[in-house]
Design goal:
Blueprint lengths: L15 H8 L10 E3 L2 H4 L8 E10 L5 E6 L3 E7 L1 H12 L11 E12 L1 H8 L9 E13 L6 H6 L1 E2 L4 H7 L22 H4 L2
Parallel strand pairs: 4-6, 4-7
Antiparallel strand pairs: 1-5, 2-3, 2-5, 3-4, 5-6
Length: about 200
Amino acid sequence: MGSKRQHPLPFLQSWLQSTVETLIRKDYTYSHNIVAKNFIQSSSAVKLTPILRISSFIKTTKDNSITAVLTDSTHKILVKFPFKSAIINFENTYKRRITQDTVHTLVVIKDANLIFQNRQQLKEQFDVLYPNELDIIVLEILDLTLFQQEQIKFTSVDNSLHFIYDERWYARLCIRPKIGQKYISTDPDEYEGMISHDEDSE
């Protein structure tokens, strides 16, 4: 279970679980890896200000995106920052790299997609593997702003947070049924070339 304790940072609240539970359709099989597109702006699923804390950066991918782990007050989630939208916008705005002095800071998510990633993508881009029967969603952040720039580490609280994928409610939503599965991936590179927010906004 995710931590229910009060987070030391009062602006950081729990909204990932309720958002994911609202946006993923339990009795639906996805033929495309996009679960919700631009949902921060277009959906009523996000009930609170979408503030997250940068826990760690994982790696730079082949397309120059950056993967990371971000948290709300109760859960962790895998995140991808596309180069052509999030990274360029952030670095043009703040005149520094997105990875420079941002771990443990708070950010406001201005625009994002919720997407499925297959096992090959998880291994190559996030250095993780999950059981075959569990489909994994990633928060693809397209635009963000800094909210609190002070880097404060809360080791005990940080260590108590679990990934949403480890929760029973997530398994009920995203575990594959005996026949078929939640997300049918026909091409391991199906999302390549589609991560630019500008290219998809027509």
